[in-house]
Design a protein that fits this description.
globular, alpha+beta, 9 strands, Glutaredoxin, about 160 residues
Length: about 160
């Protein structure tokens, strides 16, 4: 189901790269930026997430919590986070439930992989309402961080 601006964000509980459970409801009262990405260690994903890493102070200044979500396994995400020195939480949607709930999944991806997260971005306000939704069909594109930052700045 396509996520519409103004709707309640679908709730979820996933494990992070440190094997701790993270629930969206645990972060109510905070602005959230969810970034779904196809696969760790790929060039466009690394470019996107390192761009966020390098500007994390900006996100912290506007009190936005950033979460990266992919269907990669916990161990893969932990290694990726370590190697890229990512300074925000990575969540494993290995069972593909959250990617499907956010209509952010390629049923078929390159090399005949099935069920890979689409590159997408969602801004969720402190009450859990979706304020921005961008789901990219082309995995080589990056979300519009200019628009994302405008929305986050306006919320602060």
């Amino acid at each position: 189901m396509k996520i519409e601006i103004g709707q309640m964000a679908p709730g979820f509980t996933l494990y992070d790269s440190e094997k701790k459970q993270v629930s969206l409801t645990d972060h109510k009262g905070h602005t959230i930026l969810l970034l779904f990405f196809p696969l760790a260690f790929t060039s466009t994903c690394t470019k996107e997430l390192c761009q966020v890493r390098d500007t994390i102070a900006w996100y912290n200044d506007v009190d936005a919590k950033v979460f990266g979500i992919s269907v990669d396994a916990l161990h893969t995400l932990a290694k990726y986070k370590e190697e890229q020195q990512l300074n925000f939480t990575l969540l494993s949607d290995f069972n593909k439930e959250v990617s499907r709930a956010y209509d952010s999944i390629y049923e078929r991806f390159g090399y005949n992989m099935k069920g890979v997260s689409k590159r997408s971005a969602f801004v969720i306000d402190k009450e859990g309402i979706v304020l921005y939704a961008e789901v990219l069909e082309n995995a080589s594109e990056i979300p519009d961080f200019v628009k994302i930052k405008e929305i986050l700045k306006d919320l602060h």
